[in-house]
Amino acid sequence: MAHAIPSSVNARIGEVTERIAVRSRDARARYLERIARAAERGPTRAKLGCANQAHGFAACGPSDKAMLREGAGANLGIVTAYNDMLSAHQPYEGYPELIRAAARRAGGTAQVAGGVPAMCDGVTQGEAGMELSLFSRDVIALSTAVALSHQTFDAAVFLGICDKIVPGLVIGALSFGHLPAVFIPAGPMTSGLPNDEKAKIRQLFAEGKVGRDALMEAESQSYHGPGTCTFYGTANTNQMMMEIMGLHLPGASFVNPNTPLRDALTTAAAERAMAMTALGNDYVPVGRMLDEKAFVNGIVGLHATGGSTNHTLHIVAMAAAAGIRLTWDDFSDLADVTPLLCRVYPNGKADVNHFHAAGGMGFVIGELLADGKLHADVETVWGGGLDAYTQEPMLNPDGTLGWREGTTASGDEAVLRGTKAPFQETGGLKLLAGELGRAVIKTSAIARERHIIEAPARVFHSQEELQAAFKAGSLTGDFIAVVRFQGPKANGMPELHKLMPPLGVLQDRGHKVALVTDGRLSGASGKVPAAIHVTPEAADGGAIALIRNGDMIRLDAVNGTLKILVEPEIWAERAPASANLAPSHVGVGRELFAAFRAAVGTADTGASIFAV
C-alpha cells in the first residue's frame, strides 16, 4: 500500500514519493514479507545445534562465553571495513573493543562478524585497479552477507565510510533486513592544504609548469592524517546520506577521529543497536526502516548538498535491495524543487570541516524540514523521527555524551545557507536525454554560461588517449571530448579523474570544452561540464559508439538534452565503433571479474550484478 504523504511535505516531494511507492508496491511487499518471516523465527542463535553454538563462542572470554551459552542477552555483530591503508578507515582499529564494552554494559555481547574489502579510489585513480572499484561495492555486499550468514546475531553495526563501501554494506545489511543496523562513522581528517590550492598544483603539473616534487608535496599536505579526505566527494556524501536517512546517530557524520566526542558517539551507537533488537521493546529492523520516504530523503540530501554523482548509481542499487524501484527521473524531479544549500569543494573552496563548523548536518536537516523538503515521519536508529536530527552531540562537563539543539543560523554563509537564500534554487544534478541515450550532469560547480555547450566531438577510447593528445598539443579550439568504452560491461566503469586537469587547463585558456562519457567522475567532477554515466554504454550497443570525430554535439544542462547534430539518414547508416578491451580484462585481478562484467546491469538501474 502506498504511503499517505503529510500535507506539510512539498507537493513535488510527495508526488515523487507516492509514484515510487506505487511503482515498487509488489517488489516492496515481497521484500517486507521475506524479512517478516525471518523475524518471526526469532533469534536463530538459540536454535543452533550445540556444536554450531560452541564454534561461535569458542574464542570468547569466560563472561562473554557464558552469556552466549545461556543466550539471554543480545549478541551484536560487527561488520568492519577496517584496514590501515585507507586514512578514513584506519581509526576503526580500536572500535571493536569500544563496541564490545558497550554491549557488555547493556547485558549482551558483541563479536566481529567479518571484514569486507575496502579499496581506496584515491590510490587506484587512473590505474588498473580502478576498474575493480565499482564492482567492489557488490563484493562488499556479498561479503556482508557471508559475515551475517552465521545467524548468531540480533543486530549489527557497520564500520565503513568510503566510496563503494557504505553502499555495499547497506545492500548487504538489507539482505538481513530483519536485523536492526546502525552505521558508525569515523569522521574526516583535520583540514590540510586547501582543496582549491591542491587543484591549482594539479593543473600546473598537467601544464608542465611544476614538477613531481611540488605535486607530491601538495598531495601530502592535503591528505595528511587519519580520517576521510576533506573534499565533498563520494565518501563524505556517504556520511551525509547515512545521517539524513537515519542510519547514523544525529550529528555523528563529521566529528574528527580520535577525539573523546568521536569515541562517545561510537559507544552510544553500539548502545542504540543493542536497544533495537527483537529481544526488547524497541525493535526497528533496517529493512522496514529504509522505506520510500527514507530514500527520498537521501536523494534530497544529495541535491541540497551538491553531493557525488556516484549516488545516481548507488542509491538506485541500495533501494533495489529493499524492493524499492528508483529511476533517474526521480532524481531529476526532486532536484527541481531542492535548493542547493552548500558550497563545499569541488563546489566551493571550503572543506567538510568548515561545513560542519558552519552548522553542518543539523542545520541542513532543520532547514529542509522547515521548508517541507524532507519526510519527518520516518524511523531512525535514534528514534523520534527525523526531527531529532536537528540536534548536535556534545560532551558534558563530566565527559558524558549530551545533546543540544543545533544552530538555526549559518556560521558562514559562504559555505552554508538556509532555504530562504540558497546558492541556487534547484539541486546540483540534472538528467540529460537524447539521441545519445541518458546521462547525468552535476551542475552545481559549473558556471552558468557553460551549462550549454555545442561543439565538435573528439573521440577517445581511454583517458590515457586524451592525455596523450593534450601533451602533444593537438587538443585545440572548442570541442566535446567523447571518452567511451568506459561503462560497467566494458571495463567496470572506472572513475576518470585524470581527464579533469587537462580539460580544466583548456577551459581556462578560453576554449568551450565538455565531456561525454559512459564512465564515472564521482563527487570531484569539478568545473568542466560532464555528461557522465551515458547509457546504453558503448559496449552494450549504445549510440555513443556511433559518434565520429567532428560530429557536432549539443550538451544542454538547462533543458536536459544530449543531442547529436548529424543528419538522421547519415546517423542511421553508421556502424558502431569497436574497441580492444582485452587489456582491461586481465591483470590486477581483473580476470576474476569476468562474470561481473557479463552480469552487470545498466547505469540507470544501479550498475549492479544483482537482479533488479
TrEMBL record:
Its EC number is 4.2.1.12. Pathway: Carbohydrate metabolism; Entner-Doudoroff pathway. InterPro entries: 6-phosphgluc_deHydtase (IPR004786), Dihydro-acid_dehy_C (IPR042096), DiOHA_6PGluconate_deHydtase_CS (IPR020558), ILV_EDD_C (IPR056740), ILV_EDD_N (IPR000581), IlvD/EDD_N (IPR037237). The keyword Heme does not apply. Pfam families: ILV_EDD_C, ILVD_EDD_N. Residues 415-607 form the Dihydroxy-acid/6-phosphogluconate dehydratase C-terminal domain. It comes from the Bacteria. It catalyses: 6-phospho-D-gluconate = 2-dehydro-3-deoxy-6-phospho-D-gluconate + H2O. One of its GO terms (biological process) is Entner-Doudoroff pathway through 6-phosphogluconate. Keywords: 4Fe-4S, Carbohydrate metabolism, Gluconate utilization, Iron, Iron-sulfur, Lyase, Metal-binding. Residues 75-386 form the Dihydroxy-acid/6-phosphogluconate dehydratase N-terminal domain. One of its GO terms (cellular component) is cytosol. Binds 1 [4Fe-4S] cluster. One of its GO terms (molecular function) is 4 iron, 4 sulfur cluster binding. [4Fe-4S] cluster binds at residues 162, 229. NCBIfam families: edd. Belongs to the IlvD/Edd family. Catalyzes the dehydration of 6-phospho-D-gluconate to 2-dehydro-3-deoxy-6-phospho-D-gluconate. This is Phosphogluconate dehydratase. It comes from Ancylobacter rudongensis.
